[in-house]
Amino acid sequence: MTAAFALLTSLMWGLADFGGGLLSKRMRELTVVVVSQSAAAVVLGVIVVAAGAWDAFDARLFWCAAAAGAIGPVAMLAFYRALAAGPMGVVSPVATLGTVAVPIAVGMVLHGERPGVVQGIGTLIAVTGVVLAGGIQGKGGPVEQRTILLTVVAAIGFGATISLVAEASTTLTGLFLTLFVQRVVNVVVGGGALLVSVRRGTPALPEGGMRAVWAALPALAFIGLADVAANGTYAVAAQNGPVTVAAVLASLYPVVTALAARGLLQERLRALQTAGAGLALLGTVLLASG
Question: Is the torsion defined by CA of 14, 15, 20, 21 positive or negative?
Fold first, then answer.
């Protein structure tokens, strides 16, 4: 059961990342974030009410979830911009590092945990992969430094969000409530940023106006709901088996994103970038399993 749910998690996260990156090529990234997270918040609200999850509410849950919700739009905006500007086969594996590396760092600082030999090796491999994935050497156009910077910001943000959610919730109902509060704050923060940008003269809607947004609404809703469902299946995987197995298998989601980009967009990477993306993913797996 653990393996099945963890692999399902990687599938949904991978497809959500691909969909978010694809839509960000057509409309503003903030619009993608706000609309997709609004759909997720509505569904989570229904689940919270149906499950009676309000009983799990306390100050610690609220502040951790609110902090995760404030960081989330920044990470997602950076991630979608990186996906829209650079090759998905590079951006996704590099961004995945944060979902493992940051929680490990938090464990070291707050709980006195120390990484093992495997995690140390994984760190070296992952850093090497990030450098190669940027295409610093070899012929052809490298990935822009701005895209790599956005990817690193997204990685740190994703890792911080996961750590905060983990600190806030210890039960399944608490997890659903945490995710709901997080999504509501996502929408408020993202919506506020979108409003400010509109007042500064940047249009919120793509070419085609609301008609284009309505046409993309099923895909936007899928992004938000797939992300929520992935959080749920990951929780089930972690609660029904070794957390290490769940983390390792769930961290494979960049493979899904890269395969979707290769199959649907005919995205091609230089050999050096492919090797770098593979090393980044291998390093992530070693970090999660160490």
Answer: positive
Closest by CA position to 281, among listed 128, 138, 84, 78: 128
Q: Is 240 in contact with 172 (CB distance < 8 Å)? A: no
Listed residue (208, 231, 269) closest to 40, CA to CA: 231
Instruction: Say how far apart CA 8 and CA 225 lie, in whole Å.
Output: 14
What is the distance between the alpha carbons of residues 17 and 219, in angstroms, rounded to a whole number? Answer: 12
CA distance 206 to 104: 39
Report the candidate in 265, 264, 271, 61 with the shortest Cα–Cα distance to residue 173: 61
Closest CA to 257 of 82, 93, 41: 93
pTM over 0.85: no
The predicted-structure confidence for 214-256, as pLDDT tens digits, reads as follows: 988 999 999 999 988 887 787 777 667 665 566 666 777 777 7
49: its two tokens: 């009410």
